[in-house]
Amino acid sequence: MPNRCFAEQLSPAVDLFLVHLRAERNLSPHTSSNYQRDLLKLVGFLADCRLRQWADVTERDIRAFVAEVHRDGLSGKSIQRTLSAVRSFYFYLAKEGLVSHNPAQGVRAPKVGRSLPETLDVDQLSQLLDFPVSDALSCRDKAMMELVYSSGLRVSELISLNILDIDCRDASLVVTGKGRKSRMLPVGQVALKAVNAWLKYRAAWADYNESALFISKRGQRLSVRSAQQRFDHWAKVMQTQGKVYPHRLRHSFASHMLESSSDLRAVQELLGHEDISTTQIYTHLDFQHLMDVYEKSHPRAHKKDD
Hints:
Elements: H1 3-23, H2 29-48, H3 59-71, H4 76-95, H5 122-128, H6 136-151, H7 155-160, E1 166-167, E2 172-176, E3 182-186, H8 189-205, H9 224-237, H10 246-261, H11 264-271, H12 276-279, H13 281-297
Antiparallel strand pairs: 1-2, 2-3
Helix pairs in contact: 1-2, 2-4, 6-8, 6-10, 10-13
């Protein structure tokens, strides 16, 4: 039987799972797309192994799959995500009574060296955000960048904002993050001033029915890619060191907040992290800063030459 026939027997369960994700778990299209891509890789691998039933897949098969995608160059982090998708898929199959075991449960991805996020220091950020505002485009971009740094937004959260999500009188906004979870965040006065300036320009671009806070010249909600390009544009104009992207400003927000307050739990809430271990990476950044100060300042930090 050709491999395609094996794949055709495995694929329907994946399709049902994807419908389940969208309808019952309310996951975003982006997350659903990641699940689909990861599971279709597994379908292709299992079809090559001439397996036609999900109940027949063993832990050994999943380990072989992990080894193959790792040899093909898939990063440890991506393999972790793929295994998470497979575990969730098998959990769904078990609930539906289609399998009695989860072969991915005991499989682990190759260890990933956790890299520290890139940040900008306060002076670099001040210089970056000091670009001149001369028209609607630069005014919009200023508002976007100030808002990301002011409230630690993800770029997806930034572009999903509607006008009614921000309350200028209370200096707050409501944002919908990962898993469609909403949280209320404070907004700094500099960011509020930039947003109010943008709102005066926005009216000339927006269609009557458009609710998005940040829109393109065509009057439509701005895309993630367009926002990323505008951040990069101003980084080049202002000659900021390194590549600047929205998440780098979010990282900088987190690092600066933690450095000033040392309140890890508060920073976790502001960032919308479900697990505090995700937020703890910024403590390493803070410690790195302390080490730099120590190395430069302490008279006995370095061993003197003999």
